[in-house]
Design goal:
The complex is a heterotrimer of chains A (287), B (319) and C (358). Chain A has one domain: MetI-like fold. Chain A is built from eleven helices and no strands. In chain A, helix 4 packs parallel to helix 7 and helix 7 packs antiparallel against helix 9. Chain B has 319 residues and is of the alpha/beta class. In chain B, the strands form two sheets. Chain B has an eight-stranded mixed beta sheet, with helices on both faces. A four-stranded antiparallel beta sheet of chain B has the order 2-1-4-5. The longest helix of chain B is centred in the middle third of the chain and has 18 residues. The radius of gyration of chain B is 21 Å and the shape is globular. Chain C has an eight-stranded mixed beta sheet, sandwiched between helices. In chain C, strands 2-1-4-5 form a four-stranded antiparallel beta sheet, covered by helices on one side. In chain C, helix 8 links the parallel strand 7 and strand 8. The chains are: A mainly alpha (287), B alpha/beta (319), C alpha/beta (358). At the B-C interface, helix 6, helix 7 and helix 9 of B face helix 8, helix 9 and helix 11 of C.
Chain lengths: 287, 319, 358
């Protein structure tokens, strides 16, 4: 199995991947240490109307919002929401999409065609629109956002897994292990899955970026978790009426979303470069 | 012939050729009625040029392709049409070695796990028993225990090959099909690989089906030889006899084409013209008639059966 | 390199030398270190002769062929020293434009190993061959620098070249040449594609053809046809051939002289009959003995081919050689002239027929 240290050190050599790694690392740390790092941890729930819409200053590093809450602190707690949504949504999409892809890749015939056509249908609909439709129907809440996102994202995993499984079937070691008497179940779980782990990881990383962006869009449209949850997209929506004067109100969450999505994309690209060519280059040489 | 270990009766396997719409427009007749038997302990050579069907034969016997007609009898039991689960159990006794056995190893698995796997699939041995078996096999192929902890890409090509062979031998199969085992190898490496096969055959009482296009290698390794052309066997017999006195015109041309490292240049006398026909468009009657120096009218009409001619079996009207 | 150079040169005086490689050293830079792929190679090809370059994988025969043509991979390969003299001029010191124009594809042509990927799949054979003729036909004016997309192909020259092409295709026994020209490469079999490659190698009327394992990928009966054809054609036209192969039987079929290489060093250079009946170098003898024979035991060579990054010192075969002594590792043996055209690089050459090795 892949050595984590090896992957990390290799990633560090690629400058853009390193930036991605730093950004995501920063995001995770921020989320974990939000109570410690924030200056006004209670501002997530408390209101201070007297201090509303103050520009950035020594007391409030990124200013205050329309309720007088510290933008900086709410941003940090918002990171937790962001990560939560991203991880669960992508995780759910993975759990749905990977088995579907495996089954479709393994079988030849009408059933696998059916599965792939279903996934194509999902892919054909613009994902933001689909997510909006679902969230709208079910009502704005955190679980519904996650549901909407997983339902729109699983086809990407199914596709990658399907393509990789199909191409792996032509590999000699798969055919020979089958000739050795391995059952399809054994082949799939013990041989195919580990060998397609890399594309899945890459897709998951890129998926996080996309999912977070879409979640922010849903939050912006009011379809995300309701106030006072400090979700970044909703914060931007709240800030609209106060622009361009209270610029910090929108800039902070906007920048946070931008850096997060870019971080995941850079990380995903870097992972793709590190994980796949290494495997291909790791073949033995003859005399 | 009931004591033959492997018996093929009129084995047929075609591959569909589809057009752009997925409609089948023709058949590629890879195996068109092949019959032969392999006795326990012997090494049968299967030779022919590209497109003759020898590789397809190996894979069909192994169950990688399903036969479309005909029978495959292994140790007296018909295995060509078994349900999948039972067919998988046959792998314990009948195994297949690819041209590059090292490629048959999962690159993400350590050698030790790849070697334990066949035993886990087919037996209920305890871990300690498995470890003993694996150690014994490693010794038999000449590899140190230290290699167990490595990944395939950390071994040299030759070592990978030995691990691939070891993996198959853990099951102590009765018969092993070797598919082009020395193709692309340097002459000196080839010699060591052939020596390994010989020692393994002695140590494990194996029966080999040796598929190769290299006649010199087949001559050195096989007691009996079958020559294939376009999906059928054209000559079958003891190796020294076939090499000394080939009776089928194709065998004669094939042997005449092999370069030697001494004596007269063989190409000076080489007479066979043209190319083998496309396996989609097999000629009627005798398949070799488009290039055969002895061709007559009857060759286009009637396909010659394999018949006994002086100790060998030959499919020619004029042998 | 010391001693024997004068004797060596004397041995070669009788031959009308077309190609003369002297002390060629080529390194490949890999991420594991620097591999000394060619370690001071000497090689001669006379006019009108077919020289076989045999050796196992990693011996450097393909690298040598490419070094002569000047088509080594630009980033990784480095020519460290030596000379490649062709018709009197050192190819290594010529500028790329001259090499491209006058030598490559004209005076020296190339037949590659893989007939299946040698052609572009999207253009007809006619387009590809006539494109070659536009620049490299004997009727094309020499000394034209560079290649312009807008270069005109004068109609009379086109017709004359087209006729030459048809004639050459007939000479390589390609069935129905006129129709064949209009087809796409994938419609030909491997053997037919090699015939096309031979034709394309002959059309510019070269002095030397470098053939890199041209029959390795072919079936044995097709190989026999191609070998016979190639030998007949080059003898008829007086073209020299440098033919690399790892199959000794093929070398025996087509070559006048055989040079054997091991791990980047050339070991022996002998006329064909001498090479196969009375080779002097222990490696040659071992190699010939490992060819499987009907009744004999299988004789392999103990040990493995060394890595070229940490190659053995001196003679690179000495760790596996039966006759090795201390001096073998100390320094590489200089060329020793055994007979008029038989040269061996060994401190302990063997003087006995090959059957004497029991």
């Amino acid at each position: 199995m892949t050595n984590i240290w090896f992957v990390l050190t290799r990633l560090a050599r690629d400058r853009s991947a390193l930036i991605g790694l730093v950004l995501i690392g920063g995001l995770i740390l921020t989320a974990l240490l939000a109570p410690v790092l924030s200056t006004h941890p209670d501002d997530v729930f408390e209101l201070h109307p007297s201090e509303r819409l103050k520009p950035p200053g020594p007391a409030h590093w990124l200013g205050t919002d329309r309720m007088g809450a510290d933008v900086y602190s709410r941003l940090l707690f918002g990171a937790r929401i962001t990560i939560l949504i991203g991880v669960i949504a992508v995780g759910a999409a993975l759990v749905i999409g990977v088995p579907i892809g495996l089954v479709a890749g393994y079988h030849h015939g009408w059933f696998s065609d059916l599965l792939m056509r279903v996934s194509d249908v999902f892919l054909a609909v613009p994902q933001v629109v689909l997510a909006i439709a679902i969230a709208q129907t079910l009502g704005p809440s955190l679980p519904n956002v996650i549901l909407a996102l997983s339902v729109t994202y699983w086809p990407w995993f199914a596709r990658v897994v399907y393509a990789e499984t199909r191409s792996l079937q032509k590999e000699v070691f798969i055919e020979s292990t089958g000739a050795l008497g391995a059952s399809p179940w054994r082949l799939t779980v013990l041989h195919v899955l580990p060998n397609i782990a890399s594309p899945i990881i890459v897709r998951a990383s890129i998926g996080m970026g996309f999912t977070i962006l879409t979640a922010a869009a849903l939050g912006f449209l009011g379809l995300g978790p309701p106030p006072p949850t400090p979700e970044w997209g909703r914060t931007i929506a709240e800030s609209r009426e106060f622009l361009p004067d209270a610029w910090w109100y929108a800039a902070a969450p906007g920048l946070a979303i931008f850096l997060t999505v870019m971080g995941f994309n850079l990380l995903g690209d870097g992972l793709r470069d590190v994980l796949d060519p290494r495997l291909r280059r790791g073949t033995a040489r003859d005399g | 012939m009931s004591d033959a270990l492997l018996e093929l009766v009129d084995l047929v396997r075609y591959f569909p050729i589809r057009n752009a719409f997925g409609r089948r427009v023709a058949w590629l007749r890879a195996l068109d009625g092949v019959s032969l038997s392999v006795m326990p302990g012997e090494t049968l050579g299967l030779v022919g040029e590209s497109g003759c069907g020898k590789s397809t034969l190996g894979k069909t016997v192994m169950g990688i392709y399903a036969p479309m007609a005909g029978e495959i009898r292994f140790a007296g039991r018909e295995i060509g049409h078994l349900p999948k689960r039972e067919r998988r159990a046959v792998a314990k006794d009948l195994q297949y070695v690819y041209q590059d056995p090292g490629a048959s190893l999962d690159p993400r698995w350590k050698v030790v796990h790849s070697l334990h796997e066949p035993l886990k699939i087919h037996t209920t041995l305890s871990r300690a028993d498995r470890e003993r078996e694996v150690s014994a096999i490693l010794a038999a192929v000449g590899l140190p225990d230290a290699h167990l902890d490595l990944y395939p890409h950390e071994l040299s090509g030759g070592q990978q090959r030995r691990v691939g062979l070891a993996r198959i031998l853990t099951l102590h199969p009765r018969m092993v099909i070797l598919d082009e085992p020395t193709s692309g190898l340097d002459v000196s490496v080839q010699a060591s690989v052939l020596k390994l096969f010989r020692s393994l055959q002695a140590a494990f009482a194996l029966t080999y089906v040796f598929i190769s296009h290299d006649l010199a290698v087949v001559r050195a390794m096989c007691a009996r030889i079958a020559v294939m052309y376009l999906g059928k066997i054209v000559e079958l017999g003891d190796t020294p006899a076939v090499f000394e006195k080939p009776r089928h015109p194709y065998t004669q041309s094939l042997l005449a084409a092999v370069p030697r490292i001494g004596g007269r240049r063989v190409t000076l006398d080489f007479a066979l013209e043209g190319e083998p026909p496309n396996p989609r468009d097999v000629p009627s009657g005798c398949r070799f008639r488009t290039r055969c120096p002895l061709v007559q009218d009857v060759c286009a009409v009637e396909e010659p059966p394999l018949r006994e001619v002086g100790g060998q079996r030959v499919a020619c009207h004029f042998a | 390199m010391t001693c024997s150079i004068r004797d060596f040169a004397a041995a070669r005086r009788a031959m009308a030398e077309l190609l003369s490689v002297r002390d060629l050293r080529v390194d490949f830079v890999t991420d594991r270190g620097v591999a000394q792929v060619l370690d001071g190679i000497n090689l001669d090809v006379a006019a009108g002769e077919v020289v076989g370059l045999v050796g196992e994988s990693g011996c450097g025969k393909t690298t040598l062929a490419r070094a002569i043509l000047g088509i080594l991979p630009a980033g990784a390969a480095r020519v460290r020293g030596g000379a490649v003299r062709f018709k009197g001029k050192d190819l290594l010191s010529q500028d790329a434009a001259t090499l491209n124009d006058e030598v490559r594809g004209r005076a020296i042509t190339f037949i590659p190993q893989d007939p299946f990927t040698s052609f572009s799949p999207v253009f007809s054979v006619q387009t590809q061959i006539m494109d070659l003729m536009k620049w490299k036909s004997p009727r094309a004016a020499a000394g034209r620098r560079g290649s312009s997309l807008f270069q005109r192909y004068p109609r009379e020259r086109y017709r004359a070249d087209h006729a030459s092409v048809l004639e050459t295709l007939r000479a390589v026994q390609l069935p129905e040449p006129a129709r064949a020209l209009r087809r796409l490469p994938h419609e030909f079999s491997g053997g037919q594609r090699q015939r096309l490659m031979i034709a394309m190698a002959l059309l510019p009327r070269p002095d030397l053809i470098i053939a890199d394992e041209p029959t390795t990928a072919l079936d044995v009966t097709i190989q026999a046809q191609i070998l016979r054809l190639l030998r007949a054609l080059v003898k008829e036209r007086g073209v020299s051939v440098l033919f690399t192969t790892h199959d000794l039987g093929t070398a025996h079929e087509i070559c006048d002289r055989v040079v054997v290489m091991y791990a980047g060093q050339e070991m022996e250079d002998a006329p064909r009959d001498v090479f196969f009946e009375r080779p002097a170098h222990p490696y040659t003898r071992r190699l010939l003995a490992s060819v499987p024979s009907a009744d004999g035991p299988l004789r392999d060579i103990p040990g493995e081919v060394p890595s070229l990054i940490a190659a053995p010192s001196g003679c690179r075969f000495h760790p596996r050689c039966d006759y090795a002594t201390a001096e073998c590792g100390a320094g590489r043996p200089a060329p020793w002239v055994v007979a008029d055209t038989h040269v061996v690089r060994c401190h302990h050459p063997v003087d006995a027929p090959i059957e004497a090795d029991a």
